[in-house]
Amino acid sequence: MNSNDLKIFAAAAELGSFTKAAEETFTVQSNVTARIKSLEQEFDTELFTKSGRKAVLTDSGRILLGFAKQMELLIENAKAAVKNGDDIGGKLRIGCIETTMALKAPSIINNFSELYPKVDLEFSSANVSVLIRNVLEQNLDAAYIAGPVHLKGLKQVKIAEEDLVLVSSKDSGTITELLKQPELKVVVFDQGCFFRARLEAWLTAKGIAQYKLTVVNSIEGIINFVEAGLGLSILPSDVVNHYYKNRDLKTYPLQKELGRMTTLLVYRDDVEIKNSLQAYIDQSFNLI
To answer: Do the Cβ atoms of 190 and 248 come closer than 8 Å?
Structure first.
């Protein structure tokens, strides 16, 4: 067994296809098949089963995938340490929800890069459940999520507390008037979004079960649609007042239970933290 065998195995596991794994690792499918067969012989177990055209991990395969990712991380850390000496370097993969990605990621990258110019930050956005899964599966080193969250295998650093507000167009009336509309309209991110969940909880608390949904998957889109009078939404107060203060919007406060959001930085607690991630965690309060 060598590190390249594990890299090919991990690609096949994540892509669910030997053909796609061959493309990803710049080899041919016959080599992928041979490398995985070699691993199965070495571990004396089956690593994949077939489900149609998809390669599905067995229980043994899932166990090996966890170790394969840890070994990949160790090799990456070793390369960074040898290359950079005492300096902190390498690549960090950080996940975040859409509002953080669109509005705060650029300043985070600039601020951290000034302190650690040899670290390459790679940001990606998704909903909270996907971010958590990607951290647990070691596809991300850490992620900003909306809390609270209590999951085995995750450590968390509380970054900020934010107020949430209802947002409507400037020409809309009071909340009472809006709720009396024959067809209440709301503008939300896709299923799994923290802000959507809070808005739906608020509507339920108001006894509203029927409303028209418009799904828009960018913060700019949410703002534009709300400003045009196409519906209500929920967003952090700081986002609206700081980044969109000159837009034709109106905000309404929410009761404490629904009107607060805790921003957490989460990362795995059962793997060795590389120097670049530790530096990022140490600076996390100053970055966002």
So the answer is: no
What tokens were used for 203?
A: 């509507």
- d(CA 149, CA 196) in angstroms, rounded, equals 17
- pTM assigned to the model: 0.70
Where is 167: in which H helix or E strand?
Answer: strand 154-169
Residue 278 to residue 275: CA distance in whole angstroms:
5
Query: Distances from the Cα of 1 to the Cαs of 24, 37, 225, 259, 260, in angstroms?
Result: 20, 11, 55, 53, 50
Same domain, 137 and 192: no
- Residue-wise pLDDT for 14-58, tens only, equals 889 988 988 888 888 888 889 889 888 888 899 888 877 788 899
Which structural domain, as residue segments, surrounds residue 228? 162-260
pLDDT digits (tens, 9 = 90+) for 86-98: 568 888 999 998 8
Alpha helices in 51-127 (DSSP H): 59-84, 98-103, 105-115
- Verify that 254 and 171 share a domain, yes or no: yes
Query: Scanning the structure block, which residue is given the tokens 């690792």?
Result: 25
Residue of 63, 77, 75, 72 lying closest to 13 (CA atoms): 63
Q: Evaluate whether 223 touches 250 at the Cβ level (below 8 Å).
A: no
Angle (deg, nearest 10), helices 59-84 and 29-43: 110
- Helix (H), strand (E) at residue 248: none
DSSP-derived secondary structure for 106-149: HHHHHHHHHH-TTEEEEEEE--HHHHHHHHHTTS-SEEEEEE--
Same domain membership, residue 239 and residue 189: yes
